[in-house]
Amino acid sequence: MSVITPNQFKRGAKIELDGEPYAVVEYLHIKCGRGGANVRTKVKSLRTGAVIERTFKSDEKIKQPDFEEKEMQYMYSDGEKFYFMDTQSYEQIEIGTDGVGDNYLFMPENIMVSVQIFNGQPIGIDLPNFVELEVTETDPGLKGDTVSGGSKPATVSTGGTVNVPLFINIGDVLKIDTREQIYMERVRTAR
Predict the structure, then answer these.
(1) Which residue, 28, 42, 99, 155, has fewest beta-carbon neighbours within 10 Å?
(2) Are residues 13 and 50 in the same domain?
(3) Whole-angstrom Cα distance, residue 125 to residue 94?
(4) Residue 84 belongs to domain spanning
């Protein structure tokens, strides 16, 4: 079991609190007048995504979790579980809908994702920052309407919906930011 002190915190550092894995989002060293220093932090649960604030004494020992991230290929979903495969060992794992969250809306089959494993159990995934997906449903595009600034909803091949400019048509391939779930640019136009 390895431990770190709050003085060693960095953004993204993994710690274990109350048996749950967290990542440090923000930290601030505070020196009190006569007492010891404290470290005020915001940490994000790697299981639920909830962000909490916590203050630690600077010399407090904090356990580091048995945590790893593994690149795996998304295979398919049966509606209740999502199946991933390690492309090196061909080992397959399954993760429930609570571990995948709404990432499935922008997760095409065969995409490589980062699977988070805590104490030997998969608990969640991170998608690549950007994916390219085809538009399957939207209102007809308006030719020449590129500067009006209007937008409309478009459904992509994985089932997710994003707001897009009015000139986007069915069949266009879009670059989507998976962190914010927003349209970035049109990569290819429909044939």
Answers:
(1) 28
(2) yes
(3) 11
(4) 67-126
We report the CATH number of the domain holding residue 45 as: 2.30.30.30
CB distance 61 to 5 below 8 Å = yes
Domain holding 146: CATH number?
2.40.50.140
- Per-residue pLDDT tens over the stretch 5-55: 888 888 888 899 988 899 899 999 888 777 788 999 999 888 878 899 999
Which helix (H) or strand (E) covers residue 93, if one does? strand 92-96
Q: What is the pLDDT of residues 2-17, one digit of tens each?
A: 888 888 888 888 899 9
* Boundary of a domain, candidates 63, 81, 96: 63
How many Å apart are CA 159 and CA 87, to the nearest integer? 26
Q: Which two tokens mark 170?
A: 């069915």
Among 41, 63, 85, which residue terminates a domain? 63
pTM for the complete prediction?
0.75
Question: CB of 106 within 8 A of CB of 113?
Answer: no
Residue pair 115/84 in contact (Cβ under 8 Å)? The answer is: yes
SS3 label, residue 16: strand
Q: Can you tell me whether residue 190 is helix, strand or coil?
A: coil
The reply to whether 77 and 102 lie within a common domain is yes
